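The data are quoted verbatim for completeness:
=====
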Amino acid sequence: MYKKQLLLILLCFTVFLGFSSCLLAMETTHVKDQLGFFTAKELQNLEAMIEEVRSDYNFDTVIVTIDDTQGKSSRDFADDYFDYGGYGIGEERSGILLLINGKEREVWLSTRGKGLDFFPQNEIDTQVEKLVSYLGDSEDENARYNGCKNFIENVKSICRRNTLSYGGKVLVLLKSPFTYIIAFIVAFIVTLVKTLGSKGCVTVNHLTYEEDKGLKLTHRKDNYLREHTTRIKLEKQDKNNGSSGGGTHRSSSGATHGGGGGKF
């Protein structure tokens, strides 16, 4: 009787440990999946990728999926989630947050610290376009995971490019085949121009048969004919290029953020 009770207790304890392990496995620090987009394994993979970027480049990355922004815009919610969630590394609290707003079908990127330099507006627009392409693909069940995975890989690549020393950048260029292709094209064009320029040079001109000092100007006169003035109106350039986001702004915490977003 006691043996059966002991076995039952051990069985319950084992089940409890297994359940606790599953809960711990699903709990991640930098990937907050409130919409249930990812499996436990996918969450762990994304978290591991983010941790690698954090340790290698001192740059934080956060992914949040949500359908309730508490009455805030995607931009304001993303900024506040980053600030009040304690994210960011270093004194500047450098990092980037990817918000996927399921209710509005909107993606938003919020940057802070070094993220403002690493992700200028053209880079933000590029990343948003890629994410929208993935998230808008309803036929591929792995599109959301692949999109976020690709995003982290891009963050890593951008951090690496911006933190390389001069010598490191030179080594990257030397390893790139495009460097040698461009050098070959430039060398070919220069050689071609010089070759064509050296052929068929004219050695006889209108001065060939003139005696030295054979032509002298004895009188010069300038006649004023007319004046013509052209006026061009300079239009002021509209700073609003129609893109979502652009520039920097202050969040509710007073921190400076950049970013941008788009619909999917």
Notes: The first helix runs from residue 2 to 26. DSSP finds eight helices and six strands in the chain. The two ends are 62 Å apart (CA to CA).
